[in-house]
Write a structure and sequence with these properties.
- It is a single chain.
- With 389 residues, the protein is an alpha+beta fold.
- It has 10 helices and 20 strands.
- The strands form 4 sheets. Strands 1, 2, 3, 6, 7, 8, 16, 17 and 18 form a 9-stranded mixed sheet that branches. Strands 10-11-12-9-15 form a 5-stranded antiparallel sheet, covered by helices on one side.
- It is elongated, with a radius of gyration of 25 Å.
- The two termini are 31 Å apart.
- The model has no long low-confidence stretch (mean pLDDT 97).
- Bound molecules: zinc ion.
- Zinc ion binds next to helix 4.
Length: 389
């Protein structure tokens, strides 16, 4: 069993330590201290320097009690989205929420708390276990930068669990690839009242392009959005520049490519309709396109070691865990691409990335109990494998 009071207090403590992305040092130091008190050898890597943050990823190595057994990785991220400073948690029975001025940061302090409390319980109850490599990452919320800049050769684990989703009854094993997309639409400026026929409105081109675009949920596996539009200087100037920023995501890379190309084509086609000739000189509207891969998809099969381990642990507890596809990316996307087979288990966080974020501690307890069982079972399997030679 895990200690419910202790994990609840740990969560309350962690959410009250400010840790916006790139400013995770205080929470990193606290987590480092707790892991060291539990006997881990702890390293803070150089990812912070690479991304302009004040700390790196915390890597805590816990020695197992089964010599020679394969290690398992457990990971959660330390950073929170904005507004996340000065969190004042409000406790109403089993529900923890905020005063409505900040996020709670249960995303992903609940994941950090689950990892720490589970390992504490494992040690206190002398449950045989393999080596555990706990990775507390930075800058997940700003593009998975901590995981991307983690040198995985520092880790020996080949499989693991990321704790960064809501319902502990679900295990996310599939996640999309994403593209950041930016268009700069160039028109031609002119006086709106005196010489409108000598201008090309970049705003009109943007409007036509967006109106022609398929956006929102494209199909079961694909989404797209234009989230930022900037342009124009004054009402009496025909605007010569509009910047559109958007994204597309899909579980299938071919679909992601097709959607990205569709969006680009809408902008190109809209721009192609516009040209003006002034004093014998013709100007055509034109477009600059930028596409950057945000992260790459993950697809862990149900037959994989980590999913089978979670299924078996759940069934020993009389529970069922269902594998799911996520619409978002997380550190697990990166770890899978770097050769550590990872699934994402829920911890109870809800309404994340809003000031209405809340968490039911019963979900977090369930997540921690399940994790304790996962580690116990992982140890038993390692012992059996050893006995079988
Ligand atoms: Zn998260």
């Amino acid at each position: 069993m895990i200690n419910q009071e202790r994990i609840k207090n740990l969560l309350l403590e962690l959410v009250q330590i400010d840790s916006h992305s790139r400013e995770e040092r205080d929470v990193a130091e606290r987590i480092k201290k707790y892991c060291e008190e539990m006997g881990a050898e702890v390293e803070i890597d150089d990812a912070g320097e690479k991304v302009g943050g004040n700390t790196g990823n915390v890597i805590a190595r816990f020695k197992g009690t089964i010599p020679g057994a394969e290690p398992i990785m457990m990971s959660a991220h330390m950073d929170t989205v904005v507004p996340g400073k000065g969190v004042k948690p409000i406790i109403e029975g089993d529900i923890i929420r905020t005063d409505g001025t900040t996020v709670l940061g249960g995303d992903d302090k609940s994941g950090c708390a689950v990892i720490i409390e589970t390992i504490r319980s494992l040690k206190e109850q002398n449950i045989p276990h393999t080596d555990i490599e706990a990775v507390f990452s930075i800058c997940e919320e700003v593009g998975l930068l901590g995981a991307k800049n983690l040198d995985v050769s520092k880790l020996r684990s080949r499989y693991g669990i990321v704790f960064d989703s809501d319902d502990p009854g679900f295990l996310f094993t599939k996640g999309p690839s994403s593209n950041h997309i930016e268009f700069k639409i160039h028109g031609l400026e002119s006086h709106a009242g005196v010489a409108p026929e000598q201008g090309i409105s970049a705003i009109r081109i943007a409007a036509e392009a967006i109106a022609a675009m398929k956006l929102g949920r494209i199909d079961e596996e694909t989404t797209a959005n234009i989230g930022v539009i900037q342009g124009g200087l004054a009402t009496n100037i025909i605007p010569n520049l509009v910047v559109l920023k958007g994204e597309a995501r899909s579980l299938k890379d071919e679909k992601l490519d097709a959607q990205t190309e569709h969006m680009a084509r809408c902008v190109r086609d809209a721009a192609a309709k516009y040209e003006v000739t002034v004093d014998g000189q013709t100007t055509k509207a034109w477009v600059e396109e930028m596409v950057e891969r945000g992260y790459s998809s993950m697809d862990v099969p149900d037959s994989s070691k980590v999913v089978q381990l979670v299924f078996a642990a759940a069934s020993r507890m009389g529970l069922k865990v269902q594998t799911m596809a996520s619409g978002g990316g997380c550190d697990a996307n990166v770890f899978n691409r770097k050769g550590i087979e990872c699934a994402n288990l829920g911890t109870g966080m809800r309404a994340i990335h809003t000031v209405k974020e809340w968490l039911d501690v019963k979900d977090m307890y369930a997540s921690a109990e399940m994790t304790l069982e996962i580690l116990r079972l992982n140890g038993e399997m390692a012992q059996q494998a050893k006995a079988a030679g």
